C-alpha cells in the first residue's frame, strides 16, 4: 500500500505537502465532558485555533493545502460545522473530515489514508497544540524537503527527569531507578513532518497503535529523523490548568492597547477581549464623554488620556489585565502607554486595526453617525476627518524602543472580533512566562 503513492513534487521540485490534524481524542484528562478539540478557548474551539494556525502558515506559503481533519466519531457533524463556520478563514485549505480511531496512531492512519494521492510530505499535527506558531510548520517541512525521512520540533528538557519502577500510580509507591542525562533529551511536539511513503510503511508495522508519536514508528524502521526548534507556544492542551493558562500565557497582568481610526471596530474587539479573556476595558471615549458632560474641560483629549492612563496603571498594579481602547497613535501617546506597561512590569501588546475596504469603513462610520452614536460625547468626525485621524503603523524600531512584546495587525475588512481575540490569546500564550515582555517564536 505505501508504495502506491508516487510522492510527486511541485514546480520547485519540493514534495507536495498535506496535513493530518488529529482531533479525535476524548480529552479525558481535561475533563470538560466533551471531545477536547470541541472545547472553547477565548470564544473559539481548540480545533478552530489549530486550523487558524495552519491556514496562517498556508497563506504565508501562498499555496493551497490539503488537510484531513480526523474527528471524534459521533461528533463529525460538529467538526464539519466548525469548518463551515470558519468559512473564509480556512479558504487556503482543502479540508475533509474523517472519523478517528481508538488510539492516536489509529487516527493518524485514518487521516493518512484520506490524503490526496499527490501528497508526498505529510505533516501530522495535534489539534491540542492549537497555538503552534506558523514558523514551526515551516521548519519541519524544510527539514524533510532537505532529505530527512522525518522531522520533529522539540525543546530542551528543563526539569531533571527520573526513571521509576514499582507499583502505584501518580507517584505512590514508585521507586527511583535512574536519572537520565537531560542534556540529551528533548520534549517533542507537533507538527511532525514525514516522507509519506515511509510514514505509511511505519504505520503498517505491528503494534503501531501503541505509538505515542509518529516519529517513533519511523525510528523503529531505522529511518533518519531530525529535530528542529520547537516552541513554548506549541504546548499541548492536556489538563485544566493548560486551559486556564491558554487565555493569558504571561502569568501576570498584561496591557493590550488597541489603536485604529474611528469606527474600525475597536470597541467591539475591546468588549470581546473583556468578555472572553476577563480583561478590564479602559475606553478613552467613555472618559472623554464624561469630561465633556461635566462642563468645559480645557484640553479634553489630553485630560481623557491622562485619566485613562491612570486607571490602567491602577488596574495593572492590582494584578488585573487591561485592554485600552483608543484612537491615538501619536508618538507621545504610545510612549505614555509603554511607560504604564513598564512601570507595572506588564508585557505590552499593540493591536493595530485598519479597514482596507474604504467603502465598508465609511459605511460603518456613517451608520454610527446616523444612529447618533457619538462615543466621545461630541459629534462624530465625518469621513474625511476620520481619515485624517488614521493611525500610522508602528515600525520595528519603534516597537523595539517601546518594548512591545507582541504586535498584531488586524484588517477589519476581513478579520472579525473572534479573529482578534484569537490572535491576542495566541500572542499572550506565546509570551515567556518568566521573561515578561518577550515573545518566543
Ligand atoms: N484516539 C485519538 C486520541 C488522540 N487523538 C488526538 O491526538 C492529539 C494528542 O492527544 P491527547 O492530547 O492525548 O488528547 P486526548 O486523547 O483527547 O487526551 P486524553 O488522553 O486526556 O483523553 C489530540 O489532538 C487528540 O485529539 C486522536 O485524534 N485520536
Ligand atoms: C505526539 C505528541 O504530541 C508528541 O509530544 C504527544 O505524544 C501526543 O500526546 P499523547 O498525550 O501522548 O497522546
What does this structure look like?
Helix content is about 40%, strand content about 20%. It has helices spanning about 45-60, 75-85, 105-115, 135-145, 195-205, 215-220, 240-245, 265-275, 285-295, 300-315, 330-345, 360-370, 385-390, 395-400, 415-430, and strands at about 15-20, 40, 45, 65-70, 95-100, 120-125, 150-155, 165, 175-180, 185-190, 190-195, 225-230, 255-260, 280-285, 320-325, 350-355, 405-410. The two termini are about 40 Å apart. It contains 15 helices and 17 strands. Residues about 1-5 and about 430-440 have low confidence and may be disordered. The chain is of the alpha/beta class and about 450 residues long. It has two domains: about 1-245, Spore Coat Polysaccharide Biosynthesis Protein SpsA, Chain A; about 250-430, Rossmann fold, CATH 3.40.50. The longest helix has 18 residues, at about 300-315. The strands form four sheets. Strands 1, 4, 5, 6, 7, 10, 11 and 12 form an eight-stranded mixed beta sheet that branches. Strands 14-15-13-16-17 form a five-stranded parallel beta sheet, with helices on both faces. The protein has a two-stranded antiparallel sheet with strand order 2-3. Strand 2 (about 40) and strand 3 (about 45) form a beta hairpin. The structure holds cytidine-5'-triphosphate and the ligand C[C@](O)(CO)[C@H](O)COP(=O)(O)O. Ligand LQXTBERG binds next to loops.
Amino acid at each position: 500500500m505505501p508504495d502506491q503513492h508516487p510522492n510527486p513534487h511541485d514546480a520547485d521540485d519540493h514534495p507536495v505537502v498535506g496535513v493530518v490534524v488529529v482531533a479525535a481524542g476524548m480529552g479525558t484528562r481535561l475533563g470538560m465532558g466533551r471531545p477536547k478539540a470541541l472545547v472553547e478557548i477565548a470564544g473559539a474551539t481548540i480545533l478552530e485555533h489549530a486550523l487558524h494556525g495552519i491556514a496562517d502558515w498556508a497563506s504565508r506559503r501562498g499555496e493551497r493545502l490539503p488537510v484531513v481533519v480526523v474527528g471524534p466519531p459521533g461528533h463529525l457533524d460538529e467538526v464539519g460545522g466548525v469548518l463551515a463556520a470558519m468559512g473564509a478563514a480556512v479558504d487556503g485549505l482543502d479540508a475533509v473530515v474523517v472519523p478517528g480511531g481508538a488510539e492516536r496512531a489509529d487516527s493518524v492512519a485514518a487521516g493518512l489514508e484520506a490524503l490526496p494521492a499527490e501528497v508526498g510530505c505529510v505533516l501530522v499535527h495535534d489539534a491540542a497544540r492549537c497555538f503552534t506558531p506558523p514558523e514551526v510548520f515551516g521548519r519541519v517541512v524544510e527539514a524533510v524537503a532537505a532529505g530527512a525521512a522525518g522531522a520533529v520540533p522539540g525543546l530542551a528538557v528543563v526539569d531533571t527527569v527520573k526513571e521509576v519502577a514499582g507499583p502505584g500510580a501518580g507517584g505512590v509507591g514508585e521507586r527511583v531507578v535512574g536519572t537520565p542525562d537531560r542534556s540529551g533529551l528533548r520534549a517533542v511536539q507537533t507538527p511532525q513532518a514525514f516522507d509519506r511513503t515511509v510514514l505509511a510503511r511505519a504505520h503498517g508495522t505491528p503494534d503501531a497503535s501503541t505509538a505515542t508519536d509518529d516519529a517513533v514508528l519511523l525510528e523503529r524502521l531505522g529511518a533518519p529523523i531530525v529535530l528542529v526548534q520547537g516552541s513554548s507556544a506549541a504546548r499541548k492542551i492536556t489538563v485544566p490548568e493548560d486551559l486556564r493558562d491558554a487565555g493569558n500565557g504571561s502569568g501576570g497582568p498584561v496591557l493590550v492597547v488597541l489603536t485604529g481610526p474611528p469606527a474600525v471596530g475597536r470597541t467591539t474587539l475591546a468588549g470581546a477581549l473583556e468578555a472572553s479573556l476577563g480583561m478590564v476595558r479602559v475606553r478613552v471615549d467613555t472618559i472623554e464623554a464624561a469630561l465633556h458632560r461635566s462642563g468645559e474641560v480645557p484640553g479634553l483629549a489630553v485630560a481623557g488620556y491622562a485619566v485613562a492612563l491612570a486607571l490602567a496603571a491602577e488596574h495593572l498594579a492590582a494584578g488585573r489585565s487591561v485592554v485600552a481602547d483608543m484612537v491615538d497613535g501619536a508618538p507621545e501617546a504610545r510612549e505614555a502607554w509603554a511607560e504604564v506597561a513598564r512601570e507595572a512590569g506588564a508585557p505590552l501588546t499593540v493591536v493595530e486595526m485598519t479597514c482596507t475596504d474604504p467603502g465598508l469603513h465609511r459605511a460603518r462610520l456613517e451608520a454610527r453617525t446616523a444612529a447618533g452614536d457619538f462615543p466621545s460625547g461630541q459629534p462624530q468626525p465625518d469621513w474625511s476627518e476620520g481619515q485624517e485621524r488614521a493611525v500610522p503603523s508602528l515600525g520595528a524600531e519603534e516597537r523595539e524602543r517601546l518594548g512591545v512584546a507582541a504586535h498584531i495587525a488586524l484588517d477589519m475588512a476581513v478579520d472579525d472580533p473572534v479573529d482578534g481575540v484569537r490572535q491576542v490569546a495566541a500572542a499572550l500564550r506565546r509570551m515567556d512566562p518568566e521573561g515578561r515582555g518577550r515573545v518566543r517564536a
